[in-house]
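Translate sequence into structure tokens.
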Amino acid sequence: MEILIPNPTSAALARPRTGILLVALALIWSTIVVELASAQAPREDKALGRAALASSVEDQRGGTCRDRICTPDKANDGSGDTRWGSAFTDNQFWQVDLGGARLVDEIVVDWQTAYAAEYQISTSLDGTNFALVENGSLSGGAPNNHKPVRTTMAARSARYVRVTGIKRATQWGFSIWSVNVFGPRDGSSAPAAAAPSPAPAPAAVVQAPPAGTTVSSPALRPIAASTRVRLAGKVVGSKTRIRLLSVRAPGKATVRVRCTGPGCPAKVPVRRGSGRVRELRRVLRSGAVLEVFVTRPKTYGKYTRFKMRRGTAPQRVDLCVVDGSDTPVACPG
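Result follows.
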């Protein structure tokens, strides 16, 4: 039997070609969508919620930190409305521990109105030797508030990221709303970090080191974990009647007590080691501030602050302090 195979019409030929074209277009479109979704995926902020410390913390008895603590952790807590503030002096730093060696290629610093006229950004693997990433400078006053400054670099391995204010732009200290640290997926190969292109060297008295140099910070040990500060008493209205202020400290530790406000004694002697501070067995009124410094050389000492309040227990804050300093800092680690 003879089978006739008719010649296909042009329409018949067009149908399969159209189908193939549509399938190809669908594949291309899906690829584009996947690539766009991948490109738009947010990068991990490797500093978010990690342990942070600083060289100093803004004096809590004045400024906008009067009723809230501007400690280092406020610069990487994920909130744009909290901040770290330093003491009102030059050469102060903020530092974050990423928890381990991470790949880093971008650091974003959101300065507050009290910004840095000159600053440095550096990274470290051991927390002692820091490699400079950038010498930066800012100008323009208040417009810098809430305007993040982005620093990019060739991907490098880092555990610690430090932002150092070299010279203040205002009479205040250095203040940062947030610091974000980004980088490639950890575990991927990172190219060797290239020396960054530094901004013009600062013209201030403090000369920033050239790119690629190493910046060292002294290694300090924490004071004995058994160090304790205890306050006991009774609150009646606006008065706090202190029955006991005692300090447990290592034998060679120096204990200084500073009292400011209504009801405070004229002076509290400096003492060594553990004991009761009998000069504070008295009535302090609401608003008085009691500060205890327990220090030893080459250690992070203990700082405890009590603020007397009307009708409720004193507000207590525990931080660390370096020997010879009156400025508390966040405790390392």
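Note: The chain has one helix and 18 strands.
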